[in-house]
Design a protein that fits this description.
This protein has 215 residues and is α/β, with parallel strands linked by helices. The protein has a domain of 148 residues: Rossmann fold (3-Layer(aba) Sandwich), CATH 3.40.50. It has 9 helices and 6 strands; from the N terminus they run E-E-H-E-H-E-H-H-H-H-H-E-E-H-H. Helix 2 links the parallel strand 3 and strand 4. The N and C termini lie close together (10 Å).
Length: 215
């Protein structure tokens, strides 16, 4: 069965370089596409879903913003299971300051500036060794500012209020970007940060194996 991976905001398939699936599952890494002018996330998800072979059973694993996109895709096509990591299952789980930022439009000025500061971003993401930090620096140096602004606008204005029934949520107890106290995770990784797929991959792989055993 194919497992489609969607990385987080500004990231790429390197975020999953330590993730290993049981041999009966085939990983497929999906790249972000450029949003159209003023395109809403549900419309973006419809175009993005064209990269998935929905005529056969499949699973989606979404990291951070990729988890939100996975939920929108699941409204259009039907995955066997959705697994989100370091993400939120619905818009009610977004921290209050994300929603306030949307109302006050602070995300248009403050957050993009923070996102371009690799040192601050590394601290929020929980990046650990030199290899991980180098990947985060690469993201910061190569991401399109227009994509950041579009993504942040869609995050703080997301209106998906119901958790999907076939969704499984893995979250870190020490996630500073999306604190665990705001979400209802099925699996809570002790001391896991936002990028635990990289620096705590062994534990994440163990959980994925447990989830996929029942598919």
């Amino acid at each position: 069965m194919k497992v489609y991976f969607i990385s987080g905001l500004g990231a790429d398939r390197r975020a999953f370089y330590k993730i290993q699936l049981p041999k009966e599952f085939q990983p497929v890494y999906l790249d972000w596409i450029d949003p159209l002018p003023n395109e809403a996330l549900p419309d973006y998800a419809r175009r993005f879903s064209e990269s998935i072979q929905s005529n056969e059973e499949f699973i989606i694993i979404g990291l951070s913003f990729g988890g939100m996109l996975a939920s929108e895709i699941a409204k259009i096509i039907s995955p066997k299971k959705i697994i989100i990591i370091s993400s939120v299952s619905n818009s009610l789980e977004l921290p209050w300051y994300f929603r306030m930022s949307g109302r006050l439009r602070l995300h248009k000025v403050l957050i993009p500036a923070v996102y371009k500061e690799a040192t601050i971003l590394n601290r929020f993401m929980g990046a650990g060794d030199k290899e991980m930090k180098a990947i985060v620096y690469s993201y910061v140096n190569n991401i399109d500012p227009k994509f950041i602004k579009w993504s942040l606008h869609e995050i703080v204005n997301w209106h998906h209020t119901e958790r999907l029934s076939n969704l499984v949520h893995i979250h870190g107890s020490d996630d500073h970007l999306l604190p665990a106290r705001y979400v209802k995770a099925d699996y809570l990784v002790d001391k896991g940060g936002h990028l635990m797929v990289m620096n705590m991959a062994e534990e994440v792989n163990r959980i994925l194996k447990d989830i996929l055993r029942d598919v």
